[in-house]
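Need the bound structure for NAP, inputs here:
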Amino acid sequence: MSKNFQVQLASFPKSIPRPNDFKLIETPIPDLSLDQVLCETLYLSLDPYMRSQIAGRHMSGSVGVNEPMIGETVSRVVMSESNDFKPGDIVRCFGGWQHYSAHNASALQMVADTIDPMSYALSILGMPGLTAYAGIIWQAEPKPGDVVVIPAAIGGVGATAGQLAKLKGCVVVGIAGSEEKCQYATEELSYDACINRKTENVSDRLKELCPDGINVFFDLVGGELLQTASEQLAIGARVILCGLMSEYNNSTRAAGPAPGLWIKARAIIYGLVVYDYEHRREEFLKNCIPYVKSGELKIREDITMGLETAPESFCRLMQGDNFGKALVRVGT
Ligand code: NAP
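Answer from helper R.:
Posting the output first, comments after.
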């Protein structure tokens, strides 16, 4: 343990971020005060909300030029001035895009050894998994036979949501950005069908695949796909508004679907913010760990090696080129 490297924002991206919007710099390893803990980052989670933080429009805070990028990590405790943690403990924290970070002990959560591999604490058994569980299980409350449509179908949130809906006996249709992703959705994640949003007419395909309408639309992308799905809702449909992947790189907001489409369907519209479900994380883990262990819930992680790969990997995520939950292996 000699040097800390961190990734800072170098310039505000105008649309899709590019690797040179970021810079890798050497910084001192932080000193510890009483009740603080020094952590070494093992895995860093890359998430779409970071694009909104850079744009200064995310509820969790913002990142300015020459400031370190924020991010959730699985980290190893290397020094501790707290009675609650000891060197070697594996924790979840907001370590950021860097090798070492200091935290008040109260900001750390121990990663249980039932979460194996530990990277799952940032993917299927972490924030993206909790988001999917909250949206599908607690908000949409799907019934067997419900038709559930999920865009970004094989990503961190979408893959978990699709499999949870299948476990509830639903008919699940994914939407994804390539043939390879669609094949993965149907063959590995047990989606009943998957529409290639880049080569197929999504509206026509939804009409074919959901002739009686969509009962649950788990919206991870907003924009045109939200409009298209809203035109095909069944009576009593639930629409979970969770993400705006099609809009994060834009400086202006799309107008959104005409509310008349939702009125006609007597739809129930939910806004989902995962932080509201933090107090139910243990319940989510208790229910999902057995499915992960039995192989009924799977996740593909798109892991790149080394902190210096974080900018490029984040840029791939923000243009939809990730294949699974985007993570960086920072330390070993
Ligand atoms: P992800 O699905 O792993 O990656 C994003 C995916 O979005 C891309 O791989 C791409 O998949 C798709 N995409 C990109 N641009 C698109 C476009 N223009 N139109 C349609 N799809 C596009 O990311 P994630 O971490 O699981 O997050 C998914 C969504 O959930 C994001 O919008 C995120 O902000 C949101 N989220 C919300 C909460 C909350 O509390 N509300 C929490 C976590 C995540 P394809 O190429 O396969 O379409």
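Comments: The CA atoms of residues 163 and 190 lie 7 Å apart. The first helix runs from residue 49 to 54.
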